[in-house]
Every structure is written in C-alpha cells, then in structure tokens.
Amino acid sequence: MESTIGYAFLGIALAGGLLALAAAYGFSRITKSAVESIARQPEAKTEIASLATLLGGMLEGAVLFVTIILAASVGVLYALGA
Prior knowledge:
Blueprint: H1 2-40, H2 45-81
Helix pairs in contact: 1-2
C-alpha cells in the first residue's frame, strides 16, 4: 500500500513539473506573438498589449486551478497514507 502511495506522490510531482513547463511555454508563445504583432502594426500597440495581458491572465488562472487540484490530491493521499 505504501509503495502505491509513493508512486502517486511521484506522479503528482511529475504533473506539477509538466504544468510549470507548459505554463512557461504558453507565456513565451503569448509574448512572442504579441511582440511580433506590435512590430508589424505599431499603431495597434495598446490593443495587442491588452489582449496579451488578458490571455496571460487566463493562462495563469488555469495554472492556479490545476495547482490547487494537485495540492488537494497531495492532501488526500497524505490522509490515506497516515
């Protein structure tokens, strides 16, 4: 039973690491696209920047939601193991 819980903790840790990598990739893509768009159309700078900020906020919200789920999973596993 304890080895199964250990593997579950390992899975949660790997999921958290993949979440961090995916979030960093998503933020970099949003920033890259915004900078390219502003370079192409400087007159639309404020609209592009506000849209990039909105998209970044939505991505951050999704990351926070999954982080809370992972933390709750750790709490459940800890309660089962204790």
